[in-house]
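Sequence decides. Consider this:

===
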Amino acid sequence: MSHEQHENPRQNVTFPATDDAGADHAHGYLALPADGGGPGVVVVQEWWGLTDHVVAITDRLASEGFVALAPDLYGGRTTHDSEEAARFMTELPPDRAARDLAGAVTYLLQRPETTSATVGAVGFCMGGAFVLSLAAQQGERIGAAVPWYGVPGPDTDFTGLRAPVLGHFGAEDTSVPLDAVRAMAERVREQAGVEVDLQVYPAPHAFYNDERPNYRPESAELAWERTTGFLRRHVR
């Protein structure tokens, strides 16, 4: 079942898609900590879209004290069908995603509730790949990059990346082989000279998503604890 409307009821903020005046706007879901402020974190969706699961992740980060924003990269579309998700991902122009994510970084840094001079970037599946591309694009503005079971293409240029990287991957993931993950980490170290901490779990792809059959609670919670600790140490 899919929802191909141009507005997603989960959207609650609008922000410029780029830093340029008069640029197109993007939409997303923003969650604030109970005490009103904290370090900023961008949450990058899986290929399903801005779903209830992504909203739950964003809310959970807010409950941990972060100002969390999940941009809606599909412009309101969501799906639970793998073939449709693959089509949505293929139809997403990389430059458009980059503009939306860059706009999200700027928007978070300009929010009065954001106490940090950088933002963290956390992404899942497709979003994990986008996290590393975003960190390379945004340089010093990204304080920590946390990809979950996703890697960008082998031609990605990491020379602009300045953030330390914490990656979560499944030993049983057939769609993101560990050889490709290790090769990505080596390229990051060579091109950017930054720390890359790869954590591997006895789990398949998408092991954090409790809406999917691959959910593995123990691995999910351990990775979550590592993520929040990493964000607290590096996003300032």
